[in-house]
Amino acid sequence: MSLLAFVVRRLAGAAVLLVLLSAAVFAATAVLPGDAVSAVAGVDASEAQRAAVRAELGLDRPAAERYADWAAGAVRGDLGRGFVGERPVTDVLATRLPNSLLLAGLTLAVTAPLAVLLGLWTGLRGGGADRLVSTSAQILAAVPEFVLAALLVAVLAVWLEVLPRVSVIPLGGTPLDVPRALVLPVLTLSAVGLAVATRLLRVSVSDAAATPYCEAARLNGVRGVRLAVRHILPNAAGPAVQALTLTTGALVGSAVVVENVFDYPGIGRELQLAVAARDIPMVQGIATALVAVLLAVLLLGDICARLLGAGEGHRR
Amino acid sequence: MSRQIDRRAFLRRGAAGAVALAVGPGLLAACSTDEPRPDHKPGPGSSPRSGGTLRAAFVGGGASETLDFFNGPSALDLVRARAWHGTLGNLDPSGPDGVRYGVLEGIDISDDLSAYTLHVRPGVRFTDGSELTSADILHSLGALAARSKLPVYRLAAANFDLARAKADGDLKVVLPTLRPIADGRMILCQGNFLVVKDGTRNFRKGMPSCGPFRLTEFTAGQGAAFERYDDHYGHVPLLDGLELRSIADSTARAGALTSGEIDFAHDLSPVTARTLAGDAKVELVPTKSPYLVGLSFQMNMSVKPFDDPRVREAFKLAVDREAMVRTVFYGNAEVGNDLPSIGFPDYAESLPQRAHDPKRARELLREAGADGMKVRLTTGPETPGMVEMATLFVEDLKKVGVQASVRELPPGQLYADFPAYAALPLAGSYQMPIPALSIYQMNTAGGSPSAFGWKESATDALVAKARAESDRARAKKLGTQAQRTRWEKGNQVLPVFKPNLNAQATRVDGIQDDLFEQFPGFSRASLA
User: Which pLDDT does position B6 carry in this prediction?
Assistant: First the structure.
């Protein structure tokens, strides 16, 4: 199959998935206990007031009908307005998504090279170093993000006082105006990502090292960096890209937690606020956007893996 | 970051210059000795210094936040609006009417209590130079507040016919009541009734207003910046500027305060506040009565055995209130007497304090045939301390033989499904500081869902009568009588009132003089 056909097929698949997942999100918000009425009308509103608000927000219509309306708008790029504050969802996405992408990008920039190095090292060396790194990674992966964040804050912000405790960004500015404020969130996310990616990469590296081709190279006296760069990496690259892609996916979930801990103005914090307020259009819009980003990352990863895989002639 | 520090340092220098100019060469000489002053606070008798930019952090909204406080539900929305717009008035026990008026000169009440006349203070100017008139008040009350869905404005809408308010000339507004009430000044002048210019629909940066500060910057979900409005009526702020930041997490707010990124942190959790106790750079400034939040447990009288007054009394006697104040709030709270609104003039302070009497509670439960009863207390972390209180209450109940347990809901859940909440047998909840009788009439009278099965038309009538009584002594007597019934037979256990645990840098002063300290407007704050 040509690359183009592959991309087209995957794009179509992603589109179908996006529709299914957005419907699933809609269904999930519909079964959440309570609705936006309490958030909008106030906790102590009378039944009549609640009914009026429900009608005003269109919540008295069947869920399927509401979803159809929403989907029709979404296709035209109109994700509706939030119930709380009535701001267009696309506005909120435009102000917050770039901040989260920045966080994710920086995290990946830290994680990817480190994970490759550690993966190579542990996958090739085995023995004590492997056990140490693998066990550490396993422990790190098991620690919840907020615990890790709290530990980093305790050490770097409270004890050593070298970094700010929260990401207070100048009004009208972007996180890039205060690079120091990015360090703790990126560090937390990187630690989580690194733990996951290293373990996945270690497996691909040791698989690659076990191929007859690498075995032959080793028997011919190829060792160390040369073996890693010339023979192992090309073989492990495909699975490695896929591992990093998966890590990126996992980062989306971690970002929601980390953004809340550091009060970082990203899309994850918005999602949390919107869920708490039962702001359905906002939840729906943000969740769908996140799903779209995720699908794009997966697709990109697959394309990269395929491109890299095309060059793995030695193995076949 | 360095840019911020530079600007801060610059502002501080500017402030020092302003002070030097204001107090003259004497202080300049003192400054030149270069001696570090041990105490940066102005001593008694010295006037507060002017200048500087105060930075304060609150719980705010997200990127969907707007400048329209009539629809803004967060603490930050109201604080921002109080800095920006004019106020009808604030509660002030030392004032002749129990209030301190803002853009008004006074409020007259008609003899039959059917209409309030609001007298506009002449010469109040908006930032565009125009004068504030009755039309602006009418627009703010009738068009904006009347349509608001927020509880603060619903309290007014439940008492006044906002839509039928009328202007009487340029400086008078006549506001009809929905039923005769004598305590309406307390409702209109609680500090949250704000005034904007006639015709305002879209709230935006640069629109004219008449509060102590002028909005210069707003980023949804992050904060707002202000500069002093020099022609503000009455009292011109001492601060040059004000920066209000949105920081959702209590520990994060405290962290920003101790690291010097902000000067004032609003509403910390008891545990966070305690961690600040040893820090010499900051001080705790908890709100004072009446701005205390009541933490309560509602027993549902439509559910057995809470239909039996003996069971309800037993639950009230079982609570160890002192222990809750001590353990949950480290002493930084007040014991409650099962009635809301402590500190408001209409609160029945003459009732005896309910004792902690587990023995009597046990007897009452036995008499009612409810010993060994099973009950589940549902609550959530809606306000700091609520879950901890519930945990202690359940322990107290176990000691009198009730098989009690706690169900803690995740944040944002407790009130999300209101009908489900109102059907709970036992719920942990909280009450905002609102006058006692008006909140009864709005939330408890007539079998309202939030009354948890309390249906006592005689008490409803008594409250209505008390509020319709212009003789203060008689009103107080009737109101106390109504609250006594609630106290004796009611379905609310209210063991603790907690302050908003605010904290500030030691160089900050005067925030409490803004009166509505629960949501300060910073009009009288200063930086040393």
Answer: 37
* CA distance readout (Å), B149 to A50, A276, B251: 10, 18, 31
CA dist A135 → A32, A139, A251, B7, B169 (Å): 39, 6, 21, 47, 80
pLDDT at B42 over 80: no
Does the distance separating the beta carbons of B412 and A166 come in below 8 Å? no
DSSP string, B336-395: --S-S-TTSTTS-TTSPPPP--HHHHHHHHHHTT-TT-EEEEEE-SSSTTHHHHHHHHHH
Cβ contact (<8 Å) for A282 and B151? no
Mutating which of B64, B74, B417 best tests the A interface, going by the most A Cβ atoms within 10 A?
A: B64
Chain B residues inside the 8 Å CB shell of A269: 62, 248
User: A100, A168, A256: best mutation site toward chain B, by most B Cβ within 10 Å?
Assistant: A168
Q: pLDDT band at residue A297, thresholds of 50, 70 and 90?
A: confident
Q: Minimum mean pLDDT among A248-262, B263-277, B280-294, B389-403: which range? A: A248-262
Question: What is the total residue count of chain B?
Answer: 528
Identify the sign of the CA torsion B300, B301, B305, B311: positive
End-to-end alpha-carbon separation of chain B, Å?
A: 23
CA of A246 vs chain B CAs: smallest distance (Å): 29
Q: Are A95 and B415 inside 8 Å of each other by CB? A: no
For residue A37, list chain B residues with Cβ-Cβ distance below 8 A.
Answer: 418
Task: Name residues 243-282 of chain A within 8 A of B (Cβ).
Answer: 260-263, 265, 269-270, 273-279, 282
Architecture of domain A89-311: Orthogonal Bundle (1.10)
| Domain range annotation of chain A | 3-76, 89-311
How far apart are the CA of B68 and the nearest CA of chain A, in angstroms? Answer: 8
Residue A57 has pLDDT above 60, yes or no: yes
C-alpha distance from A85 to closest chain B C-alpha (Å): 6
Domains in chain B: ranges and CATH = 7-66+76-83+215-287+502-527 (3.40.190.10), 87-195 (3.90.76.10), 293-498 (3.10.105.10)
Q: For position B464, what pLDDT does the model report? A: 95
Q: How high is the pLDDT of residue B49?
A: 66
Query: Cα(A101)–Cα(A90) distance, rounded to whole angstroms?
Result: 16
Q: Are B511 and B504 in contact (CB under 8 A)?
A: yes
Query: What is the model's pTM?
Result: 0.83
Query: Which chain B residues have a beta carbon less than 8 Å from that of A40?
Result: 149
- Of the residues A47, A84, A90, A261, the best mutation for testing chain B's interface (the one with the most B CB atoms within 10 Å of its CB) is A84
Give the pLDDT of residue A90.
92
What percentage of chain A reaches a pLDDT higher than 70?
A: 93
Quote the minimal CA–CA distance from A33 to chain B in Å: 6
Chain segment B446-476, per-residue pLDDT in tens: 888 889 999 999 999 999 999 999 899 999 9
Taking CA B450 as the corner, what is the angle to CA B445 and CA B454, rounded to the nearest 5 degrees?
50
Mean per-residue pLDDT, B282-297: 94
Q: Is A33 exposed, middle or buried (0-12, 13-18, 19+ CB in 10 A)?
A: exposed
Contact indicator for B221, B61 with CB cutoff of 8 Å: yes
Distance from CA of B354 to the nearest CA of A (A): 28
Number of Cβ within a 10 Å radius of residue B487? 19
Residue B96 C-alpha from the chain's centroid: 22
Nearest by CB to B223, from A157, A171, A269: name it: A171
pLDDT value at residue B40: 43
CA angle B311, B317, B321 (to 5 degrees): 135
- CA-wise closest residue to B173 among B209, B202, B198, B207: B198
**Averaged pLDDT score across all residues of chain B:** 88
ipTM comes to: 0.77
Which residues of chain A does B77 touch, with a Cβ-Cβ cutoff of 8 Å?
Answer: none
Q: How far is CA B379 from the centre of its chain?
A: 21
